[in-house]
Design goal:
The two termini are about 20 Å apart. This protein has one domain: Glutaredoxin (3-Layer(aba) Sandwich). Helices cover about 30% and strands about 20% of the residues. It is built from 3 helices and 4 strands; from the N terminus they run βαβαββα. The radius of gyration is 14 Å and the shape is globular. It has about 120 residues and is of the alpha+beta class.
Length: about 120
């Protein structure tokens, strides 16, 4: 995971992305609510286990950066946006249904027995 300043926009390059490409994810939350905390913990665990260093996750609190929520047309939180690899996808909720999140991100589940 690469650390970036909150709210910094990254524009996806055109064209298809190669396999093994870094996932660029934005998670929009509202403050320190239990749903926000759960979503952050869940997406961190999913990224750590399934993407192992191939992700850039930005957590955006819409209370602190309301303009960013408007730019992305966020109407509910938590909302996860997969910016890269294309196509862009949105997942709404606390991200506790791992199979649904993996499907939405177009990630095949790694078996826990793999190195």
């Amino acid at each position: 995971m690469t650390a970036r300043a909150p709210g910094k926009k990254r524009v996806p390059p055109p064209g298809p992305q190669p396999a093994g490409e870094t996932y660029v994810l934005r998670l929009y939350v509202t403050g320190v609510s239990s749903r926000s905390r759960r979503a952050i913990l869940n997406i961190n665990a999913i990224c750590r286990e399934q993407l192992a260093g191939r992700y850039d996750l930005e957590v955006i609190d819409i209370y602190q950066k309301p303009a960013l929520a408007g730019d992305e047309q966020i109407v509910a939180t938590p909302t996860l946006i997969k910016c890269l690899p294309l196509p862009l996808r949105r997942i709404i909720g606390d991200l506790s249904d791992i199979d649904r999140v993996l499907f939405g991100l177009d990630i095949k589940r790694k078996d826990s027995g793999e190195p």
